[in-house]
Amino acid sequence: MCAQVVLAEDDAKQAELVRRYLEREHHQVVVVNDGRSALEEVRRLQPDLLVLDVMLPGVDGLDVCRILRRESDLPVLMLTARTEEDDLLLGLDLGADDYMTKPFSPRELAARVRTLLRRRRPATDTDRLLRVGAVTVDLDRHELFADGKKIACTPGEFRLIATMAAKPHRVFTRAQLLEQLHGIDQYITTRTIDTHVLNLRKKIEPEPRRPVRLLTVYGVGYKLTDA
Question: Which ranges form a coiled coil (predicted)?
Fold first, then answer.
């Protein structure tokens, strides 16, 4: 999947690292180092994605996101060194589609970019098949596969794995996953989420006691990786 990406990052070393990694994924990358230039390039190029640092000189990333959301539905992946929950939620409230906190893995950033671009494309039949490494979720047939084998799972387990498979490598809080189970499990708590995760690991992990696919991010929640 080739796409045109505007990268707004004022740290030259960080910008070069991200640019090289995205170009390795065959994307065309235009780098700018301030908020005003980000707005100008997005308006001029009409790119497929904006990777946006929060701490930009002049017009900061939050203001850039706020302005662009009045003009388009361009996917925005926000990069931030801020770890306070209020700051991260503010970015999402302003219209960012996803965010990553620094320092981050370039490989994970590339995966997030692929996910956002996939959501950007018009829906096709293949978009109903979610593949994350050896795990496949067939949304139409309501089927789960791991290592090529069909896996029996409950409706709650399926909704949970489908939610995470749609956004691989993204960390979901227990509260976010609870929302996905509304109407499926009559009595749901954070303990319900933990139980579903434990059961899914038994079904999709090569070694359930040493998970490499459905991972715990301590103090935050869970994520599905392509291991």
Answer: none
